[in-house]
Amino acid sequence: MAANLIFVTGNANKLKEVKAILSDGGNPIKIDSRSLDIPEIQGSTQEVAMAKCQKAAELVRSCRCRYPSQINPANPQLGGPCVTEDTALCFAALNGLPGPYIKYFLAELGHTGLNALLAGFDTKAAWALCTFAYSAGPGSEPILFEGRTDGSIVPARGPGVFGWDAVFEPTGTGLTYVLPLGSMLQYMNTDLQICGDASRT
Q1: Which ranges does the record mark as transmembrane (predicted)?
Q2: Is pTM, for the whole model, over 0.85?
């Protein structure tokens, strides 16, 4: 029987990719999604991910309690496990910035502006960091799973499906249209299967 996890996201592309990867293998995980408005703290990628997942677990509980069909009969006050995801784009020349704030940088500056940030630097090196946080429920300390793809910042090429992917070229690919989320999820698939096993207990 497949384990059930709530993936807190409003991004249809991320949801589709995560569902495809975690439904494969010997222990498939059934993903249900919730789009929740969660304020993000300022801090490191890890601190942002931890705080976001803790808040998501509280909100998932309240959402589940509004819908009787989704209440856990074993413990009607608590919802099931939840997973959140944060993607950061880090520039070596800027000591890791924009990092977890890339979404806001992109919204204000666009692809051209992201390149302009590095105009005065010799290095265009960057890395994409994907952090999944898993919580067993409200009050449970989240567990982090992290994947990293190294690359460089280049002039925009190709469609920007995940926002900034058009300016990020993973090392050795020669391409910008490589989805960092997907490549890192492949590496983290085993760890995320552990989340599914935990949700059965």
Answers
A1: none
A2: no
